[in-house]
Model the fold of this input.
Amino acid sequence: MAEKIIMMAEQRGNAPAIPAILEAPTGLLSDRLARPLHDLRISVTDRCNFRCVYCMPKAVFDSDYQYLPHTSLLSFEEITRLAKIFIAHGVEKIRLTGGEPLLRKNLERLIAMLAELKTIHGKPLDLTLTTNASLLARKAQSLKDAGLQRVTVSLDALDNATFQRMNDVDFSVDDVLKGIDMARQVGLGPIKINMVVKGGMNDDQILPMARHFRNTPYILRFIEYMDVGASNGWKMDEVIPSAEVVRRIHAEMPLAPVAANYAGETAARWRYVGNDGDGGGEIGLISSVTQAFCADCSRARLSTEGKLYTCLFATSGHDLRALLRNGRADEEISTVLAHLWRAREDRYSELRTNNTDGLPRSANKVEMSYIGG
Ligand code: SF4
Done:
């Protein structure tokens, strides 16, 4: 019998204290490791219609699983208010996640509210979303019309049986591919495809996926299987290091490394080098286990019910919703955020990479389905 997961939601801590001296945001906030606050990932639902084995294994997230009541979720107005506060501290990119974000009703309304916001430099936000594409074919046009700029689609295999073993529901690869194509047709892009590689389960799909997405406008990224949360039964020997992924592809389709687009980019970029120079596009490697990238991590995460998490592998969050619902002013919440970020020194992956065997396995790590990947 799988161990019952105690939802972080039930462990409501106290609202963060309001510092005595309030401060105005400068947009130049940095944490203890001199990392700016650049990216905000917002989970808009803890629900999903897939049961990916590395994120929401069916044995744990079963039919008795208690999801958050709707009243616990941040409203679109609360999300937008917090987003404005994060932007004033330097956020330039917002990624909507879940669970599966397209399951949140009227999500287009939230997207339209966020799309109106500008960075401190007066530029449009980089507004994107990560989805399993189960609803993308149907929703792509309305998402685009609402102001979404691009999407990242999770697809762990081309072979249907393997795909269904990974997501543990009977959703087909064809439907995901249709969603991806529809997203491109309506003008969402660049479109990235995320494949989590789990040794012994779908690593035989690395080459078929690379062949399929080469010479297309899509950027395929391979993600090392991670010990996120406390429910996926992670083992180091099921991790296929990114170096091995590159070796396998390079043997058939030569690759060359490419410089990052910006500091803090999670994926290491490689491009195909064909005889004619344009080898057919690029791939990305997200190597949280074997090549940690904490040194540049500028990501904050907002859970479905308004807790701030400063790391994907955090064991506790800071209850910003309580501040919102206790009638705190923006300046107060903004000052709290500044203090929390300045105190940040998370670098879980770096510690794990340097100490894979010795690192304590925390049973309290927040679930990825609760704060988004
Ligand atoms: S482990 Fe935490 S600090 Fe490191 S890159 Fe991931 S989210 Fe950032």
